[in-house]
Amino acid sequence: MSDLLALSEAVEKGNRKEAVRLTQVLLDVGTKPQVIIDEALVVGMSNIGEKFKNNQVFVPEVLIAARAMKETMAILEPLLVKAGIKPKYTAVIGTVQGDLHDIGKNLVAMMWRGANFGVVDLGTNVSPDKFVAAARDNRAHVVGLSALLTTTMPSMKTTVDALRGAGLKNVKVIIGGAPVTAEFAKEIGADAYGPDAATAVDIVRQLVGAV
Ligand code: B1M
After folding, report:
1. Distance between CA atoms of 194 and 136, rounded to whole angstroms?
2. Stretch 153-178: mean pLDDT, rounded?
3. Is there an atom of ligand 1 within 6 Å of 200 CB?
């Protein structure tokens, strides 16, 4: 088995020590960090994402895989920065104003990072103005809104309106969270609805034309 394949499997299984070891082995033999990301980390996260989508694994397994990916990224990121390499696409994500739930939002952020998007995570209880400022300052391609309360869903509409009103018309907006539906996304003028974290990866790739 090649080391890249072994690394993708270590990430998928959440085997942190092995993932870090293999990353170092690959770097030592001259493998470029970007190749390690594209051909091992993204593959491993994408595999676990598929299994999550098909209910073959659940939230803990995804979190463990994301933790392994994060540890290998900690080795690779300084090398990418040194070489001036940035992810091609940037996504801003947050839980909307009034809402403190962040477990699902964090999963989506992790999966997006696993797909090699630059992710700016604004946390919870994020005001529309803060989303607008972050989208503008980071030249975001995508803004992701999460809500878990029916009472905070209207905040999604206010945020979409604020983004459009600020002239950020090219920024694609994806919304998700347990009470949210595709119909609601359409109704408030969002570009897409993500039913789960793994599908949210497929969707943002489509939204930015990366497929
Ligand atoms: Co709260 N809570 N909660 N809660 N809580 C719910 C959501 C609730 C359904 C429980 C219930 O009554 N049965 C209910 C909402 C009812 C409603 O509005 N319909 C509720 C309530 C009422 C409340 C409070 C008001 C309770 C109170 O204080 N009286 C309060 C509100 C606080 C606030 O936000 N202002 C509150 C507080 C809390 C805790 C702080 C205790 C805690 C949150 C901890 C945290 O997030 N750090 C909490 C929790 C844990 C829950 C439940 C139990 C679990 C939510 C969760 O994390 N699910 C929840 C009941 C339940 O769902 N069983 C409940 C797991 C997570 C992985 O799923 O977030 O849906 P989810 O994310 C999925 C998808 O939805 C999707 O991908 C994820 C992975 O597949 N997704 C996206 C999510 N965001 C996405 C964004 C995307 C795309 C996909 O694109 C950007």
Report:
1. 23
2. 96
3. yes
